[in-house]
Amino acid sequence: MSLPPQDHEFLPPYRLLLGPGPSMVHPRVLHALSQPLVGHLDPLFLDLMNDIQALLRATFQTNNEFTIALSGTGSAGMEAVIANLIEPGDRALVGVNGVFGTRLATMIERQGGVPLRIDASWGDIIPAEAVREQLARSAPVKAVVLVHAETSTGARQPLEDVGALCRAHGALLIVDAVTSLGGIPVEVDAWGIDACYSGTQKCLSCPPGLAPLTMSPRAMEAIRQRQTPCHSWYLDLALIADYWNDRSRAYHHTAPISMLYALREALRLVQAEGREARFARHRLNSEALLAGLETLGLTPLPATEHRLPMLNCVTLPDRINDAAVRTRLLEDYGIEIGGGLGPLRGRVWRIGLMGESSREAHVLTLLGALEEIFAHHGWPAQPGRAVHAAVDIYTGSQPTTRRST
Amino acid sequence: MSLPPQDHEFLPPYRLLLGPGPSMVHPRVLHALSQPLVGHLDPLFLDLMNDIQALLRATFQTNNEFTIALSGTGSAGMEAVIANLIEPGDRALVGVNGVFGTRLATMIERQGGVPLRIDASWGDIIPAEAVREQLARSAPVKAVVLVHAETSTGARQPLEDVGALCRAHGALLIVDAVTSLGGIPVEVDAWGIDACYSGTQKCLSCPPGLAPLTMSPRAMEAIRQRQTPCHSWYLDLALIADYWNDRSRAYHHTAPISMLYALREALRLVQAEGREARFARHRLNSEALLAGLETLGLTPLPATEHRLPMLNCVTLPDRINDAAVRTRLLEDYGIEIGGGLGPLRGRVWRIGLMGESSREAHVLTLLGALEEIFAHHGWPAQPGRAVHAAVDIYTGSQPTTRRST
């Protein structure tokens, strides 16, 4: 209980955040965070909550009334959806091809539900055909749960055909869009998604701490029809709906005011850039990065058509010492990239180009630093080749795609 | 899905926050919020997590190894403690004398536990004698759950004698210190508290969004001995212990980085002021406020010896129009105070003098504004008398207690 030695202010150094999140935060968002507080029941703050709901609807491409930012991180969004939609005994089909599918299966079990796993190798996707077969074989199924962007492997799960399949079998479609929202299309209404959650610290480029979340009327009806109350009071979406609803505003908890300031500004930046421009930027920078990395012998884990542009998961040749490179990147260059999780530990890097982190300058910086480190270790790499490969991609692209906000 | 009209930056006006939270935030804390991010696994951030644990141990007056800031608001802290310590069938004695005792009973039920309520009138406390009788009558009891500072009524629950009582009956002592921590003594080890949670937006004067939380070795052992897994994965304290533990640092979720920057700085301010000085400041400003309010016919709800200095709950004479005054305070003076909840709606005001909000200047500002509004409405009040009564208290006090940080 002695007074601890925290006698100095924490003044973080500049970090170039190219890991699996958090991503870089725009100065306008940092500025929003530092604004003085208003009360969480202040009419001005209630307006801000309305603004965020409207901005999130545009971002999720949905008309769902229940579209909010939950007061917890992306994992709280995952738990809220599972805890509210899965009752004891409910069967839920869940795709497991990485850390987050595994986590979803665990959460379903903890709610007393029965996860019916469709397993795939890490880096692969869950084939629509497998979902179709499982749905036919396992009826009744309460929900199909898929991870749109598997952050542990860099795989993009196709979703276009799953919604209709779910409706045909009376199942809800639950989608984890933690890493995808704001970087690739997430079409909640068009794809027939019933529950979709995300995190703020990925392609929305806001600090971590909130979980954007949208629920279809069908999903809200399922919550109203529950036989048992949700185990969680904090994440009870019926209560949270009454708090965010403009007509009721029933006190539930004290919203994280400063974080919501930040999210509003981050979403404004997303809207100002425009969807197509933002997605094109993410694609281009990923293409340039991968072109450079391949000259260094680093190859993407997922198949070409299933690669996420914001989470570039590349396998390491045996000669590369994972920890040594990442330590040098962080200590000498201030650059963070991510290592592998679970079975991929030590075998892959996860390089995030999310939101503000997805910039031409950042790609060139990272490739240059890697070239230098590789040369220092004497690993075969032709100096300048990686940067050159990226430059080739950029010079062949449309200038408008390369513009920064 | 049309682009919403959020075409402007949100620039909040200056508000004097004298409600039940959030409280005023020190400029140093706002500055910490606006610092650029480092990764949540960056060695620098892991050091910051250690700093926060040390600072929180000093604030909670505990040596508990498990002393952390949970990634959710104070209500998430409440839920985490209940969800981890109460298993299906467990009986828990819970004091219910306001909104938060009621909420605790609900949460116990949702975990499948059996809440044994000790009810008291709103504004009263739960007598130790009633706890003793219930414990003797209802064995076995897994936990006794008490709200130290009932934010809905302004009552301070005495806790000094309850810990020994709980140990004698093999029950854990769970304490809600959301509003008390940092404003009055909270002595976790000395009082034999096994689980204690708080919020950041009250007397710690940090924005809302985190829940400081400490658990005794006895409480952690109870978690390890659970027969069933905790329903919540997000709030599973065994997993969260492995994430915050310096030796394991097992990835669980992405910590709310910016909010933790802010909390570190807020806790440094708490330590710099010193416990006794801080508590004396809270007492003095409350005394001065109440002296002024009594000249306006507003009398405190709880008995003298059970009043919280940071949450001054006063009853309104019939002639006072609750909503009209609070609206004028907010719109004309930028001052927020709180109204009543539940059965106290329209009948009381809850005036928060928490952390940075507990300042002599703020007390005088509020009393002056109330005098003006009362005069405007023609309610009997002798102009200048309220401010004068407060000034009398201040001039009779020790000058050191009045100093600001």
From TrEMBL, chains A, B:
**Family annotation (Gene3D superfamilies):** Aspartate Aminotransferase, domain 1, Type I PLP-dependent aspartate aminotransferase-like (Major domain)
EC class of the enzyme, as a word? transferase
Q: What is its EC number?
A: 2.6.1.112
Return the InterPro entries for the record. Aminotrans_V_dom, PyrdxlP-dep_Trfase, PyrdxlP-dep_Trfase_major, PyrdxlP-dep_Trfase_small, SP_NH2Trfase/AEP_transaminase
Every copy of the Aminotransferase class V domain together lies at: 39-340
Q: Which cofactor does it need?
A: pyridoxal 5'-phosphate
Q: Please provide, alphabetically and separated by semicolons, the GO molecular function terms listed in this UniProt record.
A: transaminase activity
Pfam families, per the entry: Aminotran_5
Q: What keyword terms does UniProt attach to this protein?
A: Aminotransferase, Pyridoxal phosphate, Transferase
Under SUPFAM superfamilies, the record lists:
PLP-dependent transferases
What family is reported? Belongs to the class-V pyridoxal-phosphate-dependent aminotransferase family.
Protein known as: (S)-ureidoglycine--glyoxylate transaminase
Source organism of the structure: Nitrospira defluvii
